[in-house]
Specification:
Distance between the termini: 35 Å
Shape: globular
Strand content: under 5%
Bound molecules: fe (ii) ion
Radius of gyration: 19 Å
Helix content: over 70%
Number of helices: 10
CATH class: Mainly Alpha
CATH superfamily: Ribonucleotide Reductase, subunit A
Oligomer: single chain
Largest sheet: none
Length: 250
């Protein structure tokens, strides 16, 4: 696991990298726009947040661990998310489409996040949404021939891979601090959240996924693979731990 100063260094470096050539003229066809616009607008809104709730959860968490650098790492992480929102917004501006202010999926997710101020909840939410985001941006790239939009997606995809590592390491740390019974409960709660969110994302964005040549079975297969690389990695010792704790109690 990397420490917080590693992540501060990584994010600071990554934020200096300019991978998008904004002098490229956007070339989105009418047919492409019809398939992707609604999802693009919704995702742009989703990537736009001031991160205040996340910072307050991270501050509490960092105090418990006596790791003040973690707050700085989270601030840089939020900055990177805001960069995604801004780049997608800039693209909507250049193609003459609006940046929307409201969307049902986004409102639902924000309400859900607002209910919980725990770092654990944020971590699982980010892992889940960003796993789906990876498929979303890959499909968006597939669904268009516009070089500018492809570059924006590539830039986000590079960032998101590291975000998942950053959050998976955090989830693993939080999980290891639990007693075996709570680990068992938490693991099943994570799984339930992951796959129900997976279904909601498909329902909301299936048109774009299909435009990017991803059908439901393929989407589910890929989300399951991502689950194995993130949340499922926590699992191996849980059954053994529960049995051991029960025998200790006896
Ligand atoms: Fe993002
Ligand atoms: Fe991200």
């Amino acid at each position: 696991m990397h420490n917080s100063s590693y992540w501060i260094n990584y994010f600071s470096q990554n934020l200096t990298k300019k991978r998008i050539d904004w002098s490229i003229h956007p070339m989105l066809t009418t047919e492409e726009k019809r398939e992707i616009l609604k999802s693009l607008q919704a995702w742009q809104l989703g990537e736009t947040s001031d991160g205040a709730n996340l910072i307050s959860a991270a501050t509490k968490h960092a105090k418990q661990l006596n790791d003040p650098d973690y707050i700085a790492a989270i601030r840089l992480f939020i900055q990177e998310e805001q960069k995604h929102g801004e780049n997608l917004g800039k693209y909507l501006d250049v193609i003459g489409e609006e940046r929307i202010k409201k969307n049902w999926g986004d409102s639902l997710f924000r309400k859900f996040r607002g209910l919980n101020r725990q770092m654990e909840f944020w971590t699982i939410a980010v892992i889940t949404v960003e796993s789906a985001a990876q498929l979303f941006y890959q499909c968006l790239k597939e669904a268009t021939n516009c070089s500018l939009l492809k570059q924006i997606c590539t830039d986000i995809l590079i960032d998101e891979a590291a975000h998942i590592t950053f959050q998976t390491e955090r989830l693993s740390l939080i999980y290891r601090h639990k007693n075996p019974v709570w680990r068992f409960v938490a693991y099943h709660a994570y799984t339930c959240f992951y796959f129900s969110t997976t279904m909601v994302v498909w329902l909301a964005h299936r048109r774009l996924f299909k435009a990017g040549n991803l059908q439901f079975s393929g989407y589910l297969y890929k989300m399951n693979l991502k689950f194995r690389k993130t949340i499922k990695k926590l699992k191996p010792d849980q059954v053994k731990d529960v049995i051991l704790s029960k025998s200790v109690q006896v």
